[in-house]
Write a structure and sequence with these properties.
There is one protein chain. By secondary structure, this protein is an alpha/beta fold. Helices cover about 55% and strands about 10% of the residues. A seven-stranded mixed β-sheet has the order 4-3-2-5-8-6-9, sandwiched between helices. The chain has a two-stranded antiparallel ribbon with strand order 1-11. Mean pLDDT is about 90; it is low at about 1-15.
């Protein structure tokens, strides 16, 4: 958000084992390409059946995700009406693991070249929590690479000194050994600074501290911290739990390109589905909370990680002996989506953001290495986490290759399939199934779009005809948009990992 900035990320030395594990997703993608070529040329009907099987699976997944999202939206409606402090008072004392007044929230806000007004908006939203003055400490995690970062932090500290129990700032230095200039390293610096200066939280017991990390443009629901407080008090596994709220890209929804709005609505719906559906394993995204005890036990954030959310979860997962869970908090937070000075720049920034997120493909190899290094942990739970992470990343890359290339090349290599072969049920049935899958996905996309439209903030300026046209067109362009803004950057990231090349950490422009 704010001024776009590139910080060169060093190619840190890695072991040969790590290099091999990092290459696994990329090797899988390009192996899928090769196999599609071979089977399309030699066994075209089998290749078509394989592609249609992937299409069927994606459709069924879309249907299930739609149901889970509807369940999540219903829970959000109910949760917004709950009085969390009153519910706490109704809990029997014997079922409380501490008292409401004992809980303290530390909010880490890493930022780099963010406009001061953006930081003010996020701080104002934090200050709306009714207990912020007594039970919330804010740490502005600044970067020394930003000019005048100290002056900006001091100004905000003076402005909000009476809005929170404490407000501090840290300055993450440039050029530290084995560190990237990135969000994860900034968080690690701020977290360790707080550990050294924990006495500043006078009278607060470490076991009663909840740490929340947020993007600079995150606007929390006003009851989020009350809900987390309630579950922290009543959950015996509070020190092996992440708390995650659903994300909505509504901070600047009317300023972003109409073609991107549907992609964001689609992403929000799937993230909500993961939280609402108990059969799926939810993972943190963007902004989340965890106990201070869990953070210390996990060794804080790593300093050379681009996709910090998943990595922190995986690191904590093995630090707790695979007993880590994610507690959904059905009180959505608002975030800003990427934009740019022109349509092309906005689309490029959206691609770059997904490329950065797709660097989470490293977690496949990281999980495998942790399974090998910790044989005492539950293999079943570890493999479930591996399957969850690998499934989404490989479905976006390998799955797309099988679906697209595998459904086109057979007809290019064997044109006769389009004439003589179309009378065969082995061709007609898969093609018909593919068409049905496309229609179902478009209809469910309309559902996602309609629900997201109903909960967006009120629009101040009337929609133009051009904007209205592209909004409707995006529904039919969803397969193409998904390919450009999801599949291609994922394949790009996995290929770079395979050849041992890293990417610069980029702060996406959102204003």
């Amino acid at each position: 958000m704010g001024v776009q900035q590139l910080d060169v990320v060093r190619n840190f030395p890695s072991t040969s084992t790590e290099r091999v594990l990092d290459a696994l997703p990329g090797v899988s993608v390009w192996l899928a390409f090769i196999l599609c070529l071979v089977f399309s040329a030699t066994l075209p009907r089998l290749m078509i059946l394989g592609a249609m099987s992937v299409a069927t699976y994606c459709t069924l997944r879309f249907v299930v995700a739609s149901g889970a999202s509807l369940l999540g939206w219903r829970r959000i409606y109910r949760w917004q009406c709950r009085n969390w402090h009153q519910e706490y008072l109704s809990v029997n004392v014997s079922h409380r693991y501490c008292e409401w007044e004992d809980v303290h929230h530390v909010v880490l806000m890493p930022n780099f070249n963010e406009p001061v007004d953006v930081l003010r908006e996020s701080l104002n939203q934090l200050a709306k929590w009714e207990h912020a003055k007594q039970q919330m400490t804010v740490v502005l995690a600044m970067e020394s690479a930003e000019q005048d970062s100290i002056q900006k932090a001091q100004s905000l500290q003076a402005e909000y000194i009476n809005q929170f129990a404490h407000i501090f700032f840290t300055i993450h230095p440039e050029g530290l050994k084995d560190e990237m200039q990135c969000k994860s390293a900034n968080l690690a610096w701020a977290g360790r600074w707080l550990r050294r200066n924990f006495a500043l939280l006078a009278g607060i017991q470490p076991e009663n501290v909840i740490v929340t990390t947020m993007d600079a443009d995150t606007h929390w629901h006003t009851h989020y911290f009350s809900a987390v407080t309630y579950f922290f008090i009543t959950n015996p596994q509070r020190h092996t739990t992440f708390w995650q709220a659903p994300i909505r890209y509504h901070g600047n929804v009317w300023q972003i390109n109409p073609l991107v709005r549907l992609i964001n609505a689609y992403s929000s719906a799937f993230e909500l589905a993961y939280l609402a559906a108990g059969w799926w394993l939810a993972l943190p995204i963007s902004s989340y909370s965890m106990s201070w005890s869990l953070l210390e036990k996990s060794g804080f954030w790593d300093t050379n990680v681009i996709a910090d959310e998943w990595h922190m979860y995986v690191k904590s997962f093995f630090a707790t002996g695979t007993s880590l869970t994610v507690q959904p908090i059905y009180l959505p937070f608002s975030a800003f989506a990427t934009t740019g000075e022109s349509v092309l720049v906005a689309l490029k920034n959206r691609y770059t953001q997904t490329l950065r997120h797709a660097w989470g493909s490293k977690e496949i190899g990281y999980i495998i290495s942790r399974i090998i290094d910790t044989p005492q942990n539950s293999l079943h739970r570890s493999l479930r986490l591996l399957l969850r992470v690998a499934h989404d990343l490989l479905l976006s890359s390998v799955g797309w290759v099988l679906l697209s290339v595998g459904s086109i090349l057979p007809f290019i290599f064997h044109p006769s399939l389009l004439t003589d072969g179309m009378s065969s049920s082995s061709i007609i049935s898969p093609v018909l199934l593919f068409q049905v899958s496309g229609v179902v996905i478009i209809l469910l996309s309309v559902l996602f779009w309609r629900i997201d439209l109903s909960i967006r903030p009120e629009r101040q300026i009337a929609m133009t005809r051009v904007e209205r046209f592209w909004s409707v067109a995006s529904l039919f362009l969803l397969p193409f948009l998904t390919m450009v803004f999801v599949t291609f950057p994922v394949i790009h990231a996995q290929t770079l990992l395979m050849i041992g090349t890293t990417i610069p950490f980029q702060v996406s422009r959102k204003l």
